[in-house]
Amino acid sequence: MMQAGTIRAWSWVHKWTSLISTLFLLMLCLTGLPLIFHDEIDSALNPESWQPAHPGGAPLTLDEILDISLEHRPGEVPIFMSFDIDRPVVNVTTGPAADAPGHDMHFASFDLTSGDLVPPADRGESVMEFILQLHTDMFLGLPGMLFLGAMGCLFVAAIISGVVLYAPFMRKLEFGTVRRRQSPRLKWLDYHNLLGIVTLAWVLVVGITGVINTLETPIIDTWRTNELADLVAGNEAALLAGPRASLDDAVREAVRLAPDMELQFVAFPGSGFSTGAHYAVFLHGDTPLTENIITPVLIHAGTGEIAGLRQMPWYTKALSLSRPLHFGDYGGLLLKLVWLVLDLVTILVLATGLYLWATKRESPRRRLQPAKTVEINSR
Amino acid sequence: MRHGLLGIFAVPAILFAISLTGLIMALLLNSRWDMVFAVAAGSGILSLAWSMCRRRD
């Protein structure tokens, strides 16, 4: 039986964690709505019409593609290389330096059969990129991401305190009760409680994984510092001394070392996902779970020496799994529609919470008691 | 009629378990079960619709 003082304490926690985070969470929920269907929107605005120059022809080597991409961007260095799943297309990201910030990077796609540039399917991309940037870091880079992570932590605290407060408010009510015939405030309080409790699992999963996603940069930096330290030490100079080792050989060797895995992308020396001297060939597993967990094979970019397959530690695996669990893009269209509805319901929870706070401020004398269900100790 | 904690949280706990199972299992298993797990993940929405239809006042 909750005492009045305990309820007041939890109410205070719930009120302030909610109030501080609500506007940002509303922004995240609203920007999240179109992002759920990012792929579908891209496909609808950019219907596939590209065909390779030589369908069925022998592909160029990755080294040739890399050289062609650098000819298109003189003065730049390669940062990432990724591979289309459905088409013979290789994507190359370059920049003025290997550690260039995102807005300085250039992304280009190349026909693997000819080396020709593939026209970008970017109709509507500027709008979606704007929404994604707003959702991810409010255009503030790492400080923005970390700030949103803090808001996510407050949101999780608001959810937990809300669950605690659900008990005293529902002691005399059946599940699903909404008292529509009494005051509007009571009606919306019941809606707030009902909508919040039925979406609890989803909102906790999306909230917690959202917080983890905001920690991507420190997580990857920690991984590089802790797990790749032995490769960093003493290897930087060797790269500068000689020509670049074959990328094709590096990728071939990486795939050979991990026969049960599939190639995902390559990080070049100096990029955020490798050391200053290694190609990091990232592969992912071939099961529904492991396809979200990436594992690198590091190959020295100067000598071609294989440093071996490096298992990712638990915190990077948590980051890998947080992405699909946050975006909801892993279970087909129906799951995305479920994501959409739950996002809308969460917006309603936030809005009703604001309404309840605002109306309570307007009528401070009519404090809402939890349906006379709390035994109050003598004061 | 007053409910104990079990009475208050029984239905929400069941919904939580079903929904969480759907979210996780859709990630772990292949596409054949996607629709089943999507429905499980959205069990809260179904319970909401049921509550609205029953109109407990």
State the main characteristics:
heterodimer, A: 379 residues, alpha+beta, 3 domains, 13 helices, 12% strand, elongated, disordered C terminus, B: 57 residues, mainly alpha, 3 helices, 77% helix
Describe this structure in words.
With 379 residues, chain A is an alpha+beta fold. Chain A contains 13 helices and 7 strands. Chain A has helices at 4-36, 38-45, 62-72, 125-137, 141-169, 184-198, 200-214, 216-227, 229-232, 236-241, 247-257, 314-327, 332-362; strands at 77-83, 89-95, 106-111, 262-267, 278-284, 294-300, 306-309. A 7-stranded antiparallel sheet of chain A has the order 3-2-1-4-5-6-7, with helices on one face. In chain A, β6 and β7 form a beta hairpin. The longest helix of chain A has 33 residues, at 4-36. Chain A is elongated, with a radius of gyration of 26 Å. Mean pLDDT of chain A is 88; it is low at 371-379. Chain B is mostly helical and 57 residues long. Chain B has one domain (5-54). Chain B has helices at 5-28, 34-41, 43-54. Chain A binds chain B through residues 166-167, 170-172, 174-181, 194-195, 197-202, 205, 288-289, 292, 321, 324-325, 330-332, 334-335, 337-338, 341-342, 345, 373, and chain B through 1-3, 5, 8-12, 15-17, 19-20, 23, 26-31, 34-35, 37-39, 41-42, 44-45, 47-48, 50-51, 54-57.
Q: What is the terminal separation of chain B in angstroms?
A: 15 Å
Radius of gyration of chain A: 26 Å
Portion in beta strands of chain A: 5-15%
Please indicate the count of domains of chain B: 1
How many domains comprise the coordinates of chain A? Answer: 3
Assembly of the depicted chains? heterodimer
Mean pLDDT of chain A: 88
What is the first-to-last residue Cα distance of chain A?
Answer: 16 Å
Number of strands of chain B: 0
Number of strands of chain A: 7
How many H/I helices of chain B?
A: 3
Instruction: Give the helices and strands of chain B as they follow along the chain.
Output: HHH
Mean pLDDT of chain B equals 89
SSE ordering of chain A: HHHEEEHHHHHHHHEEEEHH
Task: Work out the helicity level of chain A.
Answer: 40-55%
Tally of individual helices of chain A:
13
Q: Main interface pair?
A: A-B, 39 and 38 residues
Broad shape of chain A: elongated
Unreliably modeled segments of chain B: none
- Looking across the biggest beta sheet of chain A, what order are the strands in? 3-2-1-4-5-6-7
What would you report as the Rg of chain B, rounded to the nearest angstrom?
A: 14 Å
